[in-house]
């Protein structure tokens, strides 16, 4: 449901290949590099958003600490690390999280204890920080209690994401899960209906049979190829946004807003009844 876009950014470093997206260099205060510095960061209370390690490099201390902290190590070419920093990174760079991640099980328990109806949002490989920030802003405004992202293949929650969210990321829970397939199973076992928004669906979002009033978790997919086939096979139901123009897709942040506000509309109507 999403299309490719060319966002305006503040600090782009362009690759010569015109078919590739701009690469972004984090600010110095968002990044830690060097073996010992990364080890000490992993030992501290700071949460890590991304941990990049050069392909072929082995460091048991970093690998063990990352495993203990549930931080996914992303193996990348040294050129990727060189684009992040021109300093001596020794083959390892980590990005400091701008938010405090929480456990999904705790969020679910808290929501039920407060007597609320679960309203969650899962993002499958949303990679653009501006899209993520805009989605977070809409999610917070619509009363979503939690955004769930994968440990690998998701946008970094950096200062750009925080700015684009207009502070919303300070007010909404964010969970980072290593495996979204296991997350979907856990949500379903917790009594939450998982709804995929995809153009592959035969069900219109605005059909009478589309019920978004109960405990739900909405999944939105990657800017490039939408929701992964594995997740689509697992969800409880699919919906699609009707498109009446010549363009065949919406930007993912716009599409998310459409779906979430339809849920708000249905829930408001149910309360009034």
UniProtKB/TrEMBL annotation:
Keywords: Methyltransferase, Transferase. SMART domains: SpoU_sub_bind (SM00967). GO terms for molecular function: RNA binding; RNA methyltransferase activity. InterPro entries: Alpha/beta_knot_MTases, Ribosomal_eL30-like_sf, rRNA_MeTrfase_TrmH, SpoU_MeTrfase, SpoU_subst-bd, tRNA_m1G_MTases_N. GO terms for cellular component: cytosol. SUPFAM superfamilies: alpha/beta knot, L30e-like. This is 23S rRNA (Guanosine(2251)-2'-O)-methyltransferase RlmB.
């Amino acid at each position: 449901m999403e299309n490719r876009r060319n966002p305006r950014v503040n600090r782009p470093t362009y690759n010569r290949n015109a078919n590739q997206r701009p690469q972004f260099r984090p600010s110095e205060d968002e990044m830690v590099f060097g073996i010992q510095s990364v080890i000490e960061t992993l030992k501290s209370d700071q949460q890590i958003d991304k941990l990049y390690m050069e392909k072929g490099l082995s460091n048991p201390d970093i690998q063990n600490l990352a495993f203990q902290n549930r931080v996914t190590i992303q193996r990348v070419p040294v050129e990727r690390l060189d684009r992040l920093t021109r300093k001596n990174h020794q083959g390892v760079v980590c990005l400091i999280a701008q938010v405090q991640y929480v456990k999904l099980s705790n969020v679910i328990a808290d929501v039920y204890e407060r007597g609320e109806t679960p309203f969650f949002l899962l993002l499958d490989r949303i990679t653009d920080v501006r899209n993520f920030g805009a989605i977070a802003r809409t999610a917070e405004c619509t009363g979503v209690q939690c955004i769930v992202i994968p440990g690998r293949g998701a946008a970094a929650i950096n200062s750009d994401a925080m700015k684009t969210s207009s502070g919303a990321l300070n007010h909404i829970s964010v969970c980072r899960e290593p495996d979204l397939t296991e997350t979907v199973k856990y949500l379903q076992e917790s009594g939450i209906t998982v709804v995929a928004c995809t153009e592959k669906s035969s069900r219109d979002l605005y059909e009478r049979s589309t019920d978004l009033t109960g405990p739900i978790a909405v999944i939105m997919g990657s800017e490039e190829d939408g929701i992964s086939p594995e997740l689509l096979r697992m969800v409880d139901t699919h919906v699609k946004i009707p498109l009446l123009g010549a363009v065949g897709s919406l930007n993912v942040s716009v599409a998310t807003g459409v779906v979430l506000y339809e849920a708000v509309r249905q829930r408001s109507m149910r309360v009034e009844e």
